[in-house]
């Protein structure tokens, strides 16, 4: 049975959110997060037994010729030219895809169980839920019992380090309505999603070998989403991811030079400039960064100095749920197709929080980076030669124009 050992709920969560752990048939951790009063009170309970006849997740299996082969543990290799670790997970080639032209499966493994439905390989044991969190069945990174985590070398050459990609990958389903959109969820449900982010950050930060916890949401088939269901993920890296490493280098250098916090000073500078601030409430500020890369990009920062999601207090969690709701709705209205209805915006919402063990964490600051590669209702920004080949971004617009469009969609002050 999955255990909860490090998470401490705030006053709201104590009274209004119930977390129930269980274990799926193959041994993966699973958690219900209920905000329905009948489940919070205990008047109703969730189904904890996964009825699927699944083998243990790390068990060997038979290949096409009937030979037993070990579990394909994901490996990572270090690029000697950049120092980046590159996880390689061949098992993900077999994951079900239900969205887009490459769909390989019918049904939805993220939906609640439907008795009698022809697709019975769903991940949720119950016939309903509010929010659920579980380990990914096809992880990019996972600690495998009995597999060495020592560094070895590709072809025996010390140029190419390799080791087990001993991280962790989790899925967060935001709502049981598989046809719904995150933008349409009530703020109360998004508040439960925020609690899920905080809960998993608190728990995973104490797990062996994890260096960075990255909650994120991919939305839209154009982004590459393989399952059409309102959900996000949590990637837990056994290294500092390249973008975070670069940010840490700059935040640390800024602190050594000025004694200040770069992310806080950026937020304050945006507030002073005013032009690119698109929303604010009691606890959060949303702005288009002055050097935005994407044709639609918004950063969201807490007013108070906070390192990680689990450090947010109740007011900050409610204010975040409210701001996230406004942001998703305005993102969907950003591009006009001529009918005044906007569109279901493809986007990535990426949480940047302080790494777990790195000493530079104290000079970092929690922030959300929200962006879309759509540059018009019928146009996409492709990352071609300059962006992909040299990571040298060329913007198709200006941050001021992005902010101007957001100003047309709603007021800046969204405090209740």
UniProtKB/TrEMBL annotation:
Its cofactor is Zn(2+). Residues 98-123 are annotated as: Disordered. InterPro entries: GalP_UDPtransf1, GalP_Utransf_C, GalP_Utransf_N, HIT-like_sf. Residues 248-368 form the Galactose-1-phosphate uridyl transferase C-terminal domain. One of its GO terms (molecular function) is zinc ion binding. It comes from the Bacteria. GO terms for biological process: galactose catabolic process via UDP-galactose, Leloir pathway. GO terms for cellular component: cytoplasm. The keyword Nucleus does not apply. Keywords: Carbohydrate metabolism, Galactose metabolism, Metal-binding, Nucleotidyltransferase, Transferase, Zinc. The active site is at 231 (tele-ump-histidine intermediate). It is an enzyme of class 2 (transferase). Residues 73-239 form the Galactose-1-phosphate uridyl transferase N-terminal domain. Its EC number is 2.7.7.12. Belongs to the galactose-1-phosphate uridylyltransferase type 1 family. NCBIfam families: galT_1. This is Galactose-1-phosphate uridylyltransferase. The gene is galT.
């Amino acid at each position: 049975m999955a255990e909860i050992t490090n998470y401490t709920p705030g006053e709201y969560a104590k009274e209004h959110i119930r977390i129930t752990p269980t274990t799926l048939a193959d041994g993966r951790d699973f958690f219900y997060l209920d905000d329905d009063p009948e489940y919070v009170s205990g008047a109703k309970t969730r189904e904890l037994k996964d009825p699927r006849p699944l083998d243990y997740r790390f068990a060997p299996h038979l290949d096409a010729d009937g030979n037993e082969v070990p579990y394909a543990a994901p490996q990572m290799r270090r690029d000697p030219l950049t120092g980046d670790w590159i996880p390689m997970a061949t098992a993900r080639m077999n994951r079900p895809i239900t969205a887009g032209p490459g769909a390989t499966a019918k049904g939805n493994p993220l939906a609640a169980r439907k008795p009698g439905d022809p697709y019975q390989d769903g991940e949720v044991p119950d016939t309903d839920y509010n929010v659920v969190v579980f380990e990914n069945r096809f992880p990019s990174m996972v600690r495998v019992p009995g597999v060495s985590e020592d560094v070895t070398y590709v072809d025996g050459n010390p140029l190419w380090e390799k080791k087990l990609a001993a991280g962790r990958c989790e899925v967060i389903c935001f709502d049981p309505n598989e046809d719904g959109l995150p933008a349409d969820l009530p703020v109360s449900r998004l508040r439960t999603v925020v609690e899920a982010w905080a809960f998993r950050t608190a728990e995973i930060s104490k797990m062996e070998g994890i260096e960075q916890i990255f909650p994120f949401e991919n939305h839209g088939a154009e982004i590459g989403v393989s399952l059409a269901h309102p959900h996000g993920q949590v990637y837990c890296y056994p290294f500092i991811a390249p973008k975070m490493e670069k940010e840490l280098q700059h935040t640390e250098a800024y602190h050594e030079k000025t004694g200040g916090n770069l992310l806080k000073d950026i937020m304050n500078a945006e507030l002073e400039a005013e032009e690119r601030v698109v929303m604010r409430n009691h606890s959060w500020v949303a702005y288009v960064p002055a050097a935005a890369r994407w044709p639609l990009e918004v950063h969201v920062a807490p007013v108070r100095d906070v390192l990680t999601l689990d450090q947010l207090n109740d007011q900050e969690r409610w204010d975040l749920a409210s701001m996230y709701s406004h942001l998703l709705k305005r993102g969907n209205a950003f591009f006009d197709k001529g009918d005044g209805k906007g569109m279901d915006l493809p986007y990535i919402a990426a949480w940047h929080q302080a790494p777990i063990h790195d000493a530079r964490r104290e000079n970092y600051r929690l922030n959300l980076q929200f962006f879309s590669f759509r540059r018009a209702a019928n146009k996409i920004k492709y990352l071609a030669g300059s962006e992909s080949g040299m990571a040298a971004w060329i913007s198709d617009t200006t941050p001021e124009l992005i902010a101007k469009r957001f100003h047309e969609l709603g007021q800046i002050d969204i405090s209740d």
